[in-house]
Amino acid sequence: MKFIRTAIPDVIICAPKIVEDERGYFFESFRQDKLEAFLGFSLNFCQDNESKSSFGVLRGLHYQLPPYSQTKLVRVTEGRILDIVVDIRKDSPTFGKHVSVALDAESKKQLFVPKGFAHGFAVLSEFAVFTYKVDNYYSPDCDRGIAYNDAELNIDWKLPVDKIQLSPKDLNQPAFSEAEYFESKINLYKK
Fold this sequence. Notes:
CATH topology: Jelly Rolls
Structural class: mainly beta
Number of helices: 2
Order of helices and strands: EEEEHEEEEEEEEEH
Low-confidence stretches: 186-191
CATH superfamily: Jelly Rolls
């Protein structure tokens, strides 16, 4: 597996080595030891999640505050999405910046999203199946979000505005300037 730092260095693209022949293919979709060696700290994923969404569905921008903040390892097993990650760590040099990465079933790339980031995705294919590992359980009391169309963030979701489908929750998220941020990068990788 190859690990590639994005424009925000803590957000990592994980590109697997795919072995193909006339019978099909094989690849390691997750190797904890290799990812930990690259990151320099331990991971403790405790839950896998999966969602299926149709074209135009936009989920996000979501995050959880401490002590239930989550590190995520996300991938697409069917279809294609645009994945967006926003740095919400106040003392970070990339605070308020975002990266966008196209993920699809064909390339099998994954995205490592550390604690301290808001996350969302938009479905660009007819439908997409999105799976992800998390290192902490969901907490309704710590659940937060940011408006997907915040002018300050200026995110291009690669969808026509009239095709975007949002949940009632995502229709009512606060602006970036009104969101709750992570105060520090310290201890974000610990529960």
